[in-house]
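Before a colleague's protein record goes any further, I have to sign it off. Thanks in advance; the entry in question is below:
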Amino acid sequence: MSNARARERAKHRYAKRQSSLAARAARRRRNQQVIGAVVTMLIVVAGVLALSRMAGDRVAAAGSSSSVNSTPRAQPTAKDTANPCAAPTSKPLSRAPSYPAPPPKSLAQGKVWDATVVTTCGTIGLELYGDKAPQTVSSFIFLSRKGFYTGSPCHRLTSSPSLKVLQCGDPTGTGTGGPGYSYGVENAPANGAYPAGTLAMARGNSTNSNGSQFFLTYGDTTLPTDTGGYSIFGKVTKGLDVLRTVAAGGTTNGQPDGAPARAVSITSVTVAPR
Protein backbone atom coordinates (compact mmCIF):
# COMPACT_ATOMS: atom_id res chain seq x y z
CA MET A 1 0.00 0.00 0.00
CA SER A 2 1.37 3.36 -0.95
CA ASN A 3 2.02 5.97 1.66
CA ALA A 4 -0.54 8.25 0.11
CA ARG A 5 -3.30 5.65 0.41
CA ALA A 6 -2.35 4.90 4.05
CA ARG A 7 -2.50 8.54 4.92
CA GLU A 8 -5.90 8.82 3.25
CA ARG A 9 -7.29 5.90 5.24
CA ALA A 10 -5.90 7.22 8.51
CA LYS A 11 -7.42 10.56 7.73
CA HIS A 12 -10.79 8.92 7.00
CA ARG A 13 -10.72 6.93 10.25
CA TYR A 14 -9.85 10.08 12.22
CA ALA A 15 -12.72 12.00 10.66
CA LYS A 16 -15.13 9.16 11.38
CA ARG A 17 -13.99 8.97 15.01
CA GLN A 18 -14.35 12.72 15.45
CA SER A 19 -17.85 12.58 13.97
CA SER A 20 -18.78 9.80 16.38
CA LEU A 21 -17.41 11.76 19.35
CA ALA A 22 -19.31 14.86 18.27
CA ALA A 23 -22.55 12.87 17.95
CA ARG A 24 -22.01 11.34 21.37
CA ALA A 25 -21.39 14.77 22.92
CA ALA A 26 -24.54 16.11 21.29
CA ARG A 27 -26.59 13.23 22.73
CA ARG A 28 -25.18 13.95 26.18
CA ARG A 29 -26.13 17.62 25.89
CA ARG A 30 -29.66 16.71 24.79
CA ASN A 31 -30.02 14.25 27.67
CA GLN A 32 -28.82 16.85 30.17
CA GLN A 33 -31.27 19.40 28.79
CA VAL A 34 -34.13 16.91 29.05
CA ILE A 35 -33.17 16.00 32.63
CA GLY A 36 -32.89 19.67 33.55
CA ALA A 37 -36.31 20.39 32.08
CA VAL A 38 -37.85 17.46 33.97
CA VAL A 39 -36.25 18.55 37.26
CA THR A 40 -37.48 22.11 36.74
CA MET A 41 -40.99 20.86 36.01
CA LEU A 42 -40.96 18.67 39.13
CA ILE A 43 -39.89 21.62 41.28
CA VAL A 44 -42.67 23.76 39.84
CA VAL A 45 -45.26 21.01 40.38
CA ALA A 46 -44.05 20.45 43.95
CA GLY A 47 -44.34 24.15 44.64
CA VAL A 48 -47.87 24.29 43.26
CA LEU A 49 -48.88 21.26 45.36
CA ALA A 50 -47.37 22.80 48.48
CA LEU A 51 -49.23 26.06 47.93
CA SER A 52 -52.45 24.15 47.28
CA ARG A 53 -52.01 22.16 50.48
CA MET A 54 -51.36 25.31 52.51
CA ALA A 55 -54.45 26.96 51.05
CA GLY A 56 -56.48 23.83 51.78
CA ASP A 57 -55.26 23.79 55.38
CA ARG A 58 -56.35 27.39 55.86
CA VAL A 59 -59.78 26.60 54.46
CA ALA A 60 -60.08 23.56 56.74
CA ALA A 61 -58.98 25.61 59.73
CA ALA A 62 -61.48 28.32 58.90
CA GLY A 63 -64.21 25.69 58.55
CA SER A 64 -63.27 24.10 61.85
CA SER A 65 -63.24 27.45 63.61
CA SER A 66 -66.65 28.30 62.21
CA SER A 67 -67.99 24.93 63.30
CA VAL A 68 -66.59 25.23 66.81
CA ASN A 69 -67.71 28.83 67.22
CA SER A 70 -71.26 27.92 66.28
CA THR A 71 -71.49 26.27 69.71
CA PRO A 72 -71.87 28.82 72.55
CA ARG A 73 -68.71 28.94 74.62
CA ALA A 74 -66.52 31.38 76.47
CA GLN A 75 -64.35 33.33 74.00
CA PRO A 76 -60.74 33.92 75.10
CA THR A 77 -59.55 37.49 75.59
CA ALA A 78 -56.06 38.88 76.07
CA LYS A 79 -56.59 38.56 79.83
CA ASP A 80 -57.75 34.94 79.56
CA THR A 81 -54.95 33.50 77.43
CA ALA A 82 -53.27 31.87 80.47
CA ASN A 83 -54.83 30.05 83.40
CA PRO A 84 -54.07 32.03 86.59
CA CYS A 85 -55.08 29.10 88.83
CA ALA A 86 -52.59 26.72 90.37
CA ALA A 87 -52.93 23.04 89.50
CA PRO A 88 -54.85 21.06 92.15
CA THR A 89 -52.47 19.07 94.31
CA SER A 90 -54.87 16.26 95.15
CA LYS A 91 -57.32 14.08 93.25
CA PRO A 92 -61.01 13.70 94.09
CA LEU A 93 -61.88 10.90 96.50
CA SER A 94 -63.54 7.76 95.21
CA ARG A 95 -65.92 7.97 98.16
CA ALA A 96 -66.83 10.88 100.45
CA PRO A 97 -66.53 10.52 104.24
CA SER A 98 -69.88 9.62 105.78
CA TYR A 99 -71.45 10.69 109.07
CA PRO A 100 -74.60 9.24 110.66
CA ALA A 101 -76.47 12.50 111.33
CA PRO A 102 -76.15 16.25 110.89
CA PRO A 103 -74.74 18.20 113.82
CA PRO A 104 -77.21 20.02 116.10
CA LYS A 105 -78.35 23.51 115.12
CA SER A 106 -76.85 24.79 118.34
CA LEU A 107 -73.35 24.42 116.90
CA ALA A 108 -73.85 27.69 115.01
CA GLN A 109 -74.74 29.36 118.35
CA GLY A 110 -77.20 31.64 116.56
CA LYS A 111 -74.26 33.86 115.58
CA VAL A 112 -72.72 35.25 112.44
CA TRP A 113 -69.51 33.40 111.51
CA ASP A 114 -66.58 34.21 109.28
CA ALA A 115 -65.11 31.57 106.99
CA THR A 116 -61.96 31.64 104.90
CA VAL A 117 -61.94 29.29 101.93
CA VAL A 118 -58.51 28.93 100.34
CA THR A 119 -58.66 27.60 96.79
CA THR A 120 -56.17 26.90 94.03
CA CYS A 121 -57.45 30.05 92.30
CA GLY A 122 -57.36 32.37 95.32
CA THR A 123 -58.90 33.01 98.73
CA ILE A 124 -62.62 33.57 99.28
CA GLY A 125 -63.96 35.19 102.46
CA LEU A 126 -67.47 34.29 103.59
CA GLU A 127 -69.95 35.57 106.14
CA LEU A 128 -72.13 32.74 107.48
CA TYR A 129 -75.67 33.40 108.72
CA GLY A 130 -75.75 31.23 111.82
CA ASP A 131 -78.76 33.21 113.00
CA LYS A 132 -80.84 32.85 109.79
CA ALA A 133 -79.83 29.32 108.72
CA PRO A 134 -78.59 27.58 111.88
CA GLN A 135 -78.78 24.00 110.61
CA THR A 136 -77.01 24.77 107.36
CA VAL A 137 -74.27 26.81 109.02
CA SER A 138 -73.83 24.19 111.74
CA SER A 139 -73.32 21.55 109.04
CA PHE A 140 -70.81 23.75 107.20
CA ILE A 141 -68.88 24.38 110.42
CA PHE A 142 -68.90 20.67 111.31
CA LEU A 143 -67.69 19.53 107.89
CA SER A 144 -65.06 22.26 107.69
CA ARG A 145 -63.59 21.26 111.04
CA LYS A 146 -63.56 17.62 109.92
CA GLY A 147 -61.52 18.56 106.82
CA PHE A 148 -64.35 17.26 104.63
CA TYR A 149 -63.88 20.01 102.06
CA THR A 150 -60.07 19.93 101.97
CA GLY A 151 -58.87 18.87 98.53
CA SER A 152 -62.37 18.75 97.06
CA PRO A 153 -62.93 20.20 93.57
CA CYS A 154 -65.55 22.71 92.53
CA HIS A 155 -67.16 20.46 89.97
CA ARG A 156 -69.79 22.61 88.25
CA LEU A 157 -69.89 25.99 86.53
CA THR A 158 -72.98 27.52 84.91
CA SER A 159 -73.11 30.60 82.72
CA SER A 160 -76.67 30.99 81.44
CA PRO A 161 -78.20 34.50 81.73
CA SER A 162 -80.16 33.61 84.88
CA LEU A 163 -77.78 31.05 86.41
CA LYS A 164 -74.22 32.16 87.19
CA VAL A 165 -73.00 29.64 89.71
CA LEU A 166 -69.85 27.82 90.84
CA GLN A 167 -70.80 24.66 92.74
CA CYS A 168 -68.46 22.96 95.23
CA GLY A 169 -68.56 20.70 98.27
CA ASP A 170 -68.41 17.17 96.83
CA PRO A 171 -65.10 15.43 97.64
CA THR A 172 -65.70 12.96 94.79
CA GLY A 173 -66.12 15.73 92.19
CA THR A 174 -69.01 13.83 90.59
CA GLY A 175 -71.85 15.98 91.88
CA THR A 176 -73.38 12.99 93.66
CA GLY A 177 -71.24 12.86 96.81
CA GLY A 178 -72.41 14.01 100.22
CA PRO A 179 -71.77 13.65 103.97
CA GLY A 180 -74.14 10.72 104.50
CA TYR A 181 -76.84 12.83 106.13
CA SER A 182 -79.40 15.37 104.93
CA TYR A 183 -81.55 18.18 106.28
CA GLY A 184 -84.17 20.67 105.14
CA VAL A 185 -84.27 24.07 103.44
CA GLU A 186 -83.75 27.24 105.46
CA ASN A 187 -83.86 30.94 104.56
CA ALA A 188 -84.90 30.44 100.92
CA PRO A 189 -85.80 33.75 99.20
CA ALA A 190 -89.48 34.08 98.32
CA ASN A 191 -88.65 35.87 95.07
CA GLY A 192 -86.05 33.32 93.90
CA ALA A 193 -83.33 36.01 93.69
CA TYR A 194 -79.73 35.06 94.50
CA PRO A 195 -77.62 38.20 93.93
CA ALA A 196 -73.95 38.03 92.98
CA GLY A 197 -71.92 36.90 95.97
CA THR A 198 -74.64 34.70 97.48
CA LEU A 199 -73.67 31.51 99.32
CA ALA A 200 -76.39 28.86 99.20
CA MET A 201 -76.88 25.11 99.47
CA ALA A 202 -77.33 22.83 96.47
CA ARG A 203 -79.76 19.95 96.81
CA GLY A 204 -81.65 17.22 94.97
CA ASN A 205 -85.34 17.15 94.12
CA SER A 206 -86.41 16.87 97.75
CA THR A 207 -86.34 19.92 100.03
CA ASN A 208 -84.85 17.60 102.64
CA SER A 209 -81.82 16.67 100.53
CA ASN A 210 -79.36 19.35 101.64
CA GLY A 211 -75.95 17.95 102.51
CA SER A 212 -72.44 19.24 101.83
CA GLN A 213 -72.68 20.74 98.35
CA PHE A 214 -72.99 24.50 98.12
CA PHE A 215 -72.91 27.10 95.38
CA LEU A 216 -71.52 30.61 95.07
CA THR A 217 -73.06 33.08 92.63
CA TYR A 218 -70.57 35.17 90.63
CA GLY A 219 -73.46 37.04 88.95
CA ASP A 220 -77.11 37.75 89.72
CA THR A 221 -79.03 34.48 89.59
CA THR A 222 -82.71 33.57 89.63
CA LEU A 223 -83.97 30.14 90.66
CA PRO A 224 -87.50 28.69 90.74
CA THR A 225 -89.46 28.99 93.96
CA ASP A 226 -92.16 26.41 93.28
CA THR A 227 -89.91 23.53 94.34
CA GLY A 228 -89.01 24.97 97.74
CA GLY A 229 -86.05 27.18 96.92
CA TYR A 230 -82.46 26.90 98.13
CA SER A 231 -81.00 27.78 101.53
CA ILE A 232 -79.06 31.03 101.58
CA PHE A 233 -76.62 30.69 104.47
CA GLY A 234 -74.07 33.40 103.78
CA LYS A 235 -72.42 35.78 101.37
CA VAL A 236 -69.01 36.47 99.83
CA THR A 237 -67.11 39.20 101.66
CA LYS A 238 -63.86 38.79 99.74
CA GLY A 239 -62.82 37.03 96.54
CA LEU A 240 -65.76 37.61 94.20
CA ASP A 241 -63.04 38.28 91.62
CA VAL A 242 -61.75 34.74 92.22
CA LEU A 243 -65.14 33.33 91.23
CA ARG A 244 -65.25 35.52 88.14
CA THR A 245 -61.73 34.45 87.17
CA VAL A 246 -62.87 30.82 87.22
CA ALA A 247 -66.03 31.72 85.30
CA ALA A 248 -64.04 33.59 82.63
CA GLY A 249 -62.40 30.31 81.62
CA GLY A 250 -65.70 28.70 80.67
CA THR A 251 -66.41 24.98 80.91
CA THR A 252 -64.49 21.95 79.70
CA ASN A 253 -67.30 21.01 77.32
CA GLY A 254 -67.81 24.53 75.95
CA GLN A 255 -71.44 24.50 77.13
CA PRO A 256 -73.18 26.84 79.62
CA ASP A 257 -73.19 24.04 82.21
CA GLY A 258 -70.22 21.79 82.93
CA ALA A 259 -66.98 21.35 84.81
CA PRO A 260 -64.93 24.56 84.96
CA ALA A 261 -62.09 24.61 82.43
CA ARG A 262 -60.00 26.39 85.03
CA ALA A 263 -59.92 23.54 87.52
CA VAL A 264 -60.33 24.81 91.06
CA SER A 265 -60.06 22.88 94.31
CA ILE A 266 -60.50 23.85 97.95
CA THR A 267 -57.20 23.78 99.83
CA SER A 268 -58.58 24.58 103.28
CA VAL A 269 -61.57 26.02 105.13
CA THR A 270 -61.39 27.78 108.50
CA VAL A 271 -64.41 29.07 110.46
CA ALA A 272 -64.77 31.24 113.52
CA PRO A 273 -67.63 33.06 115.25
CA ARG A 274 -67.67 36.83 114.84
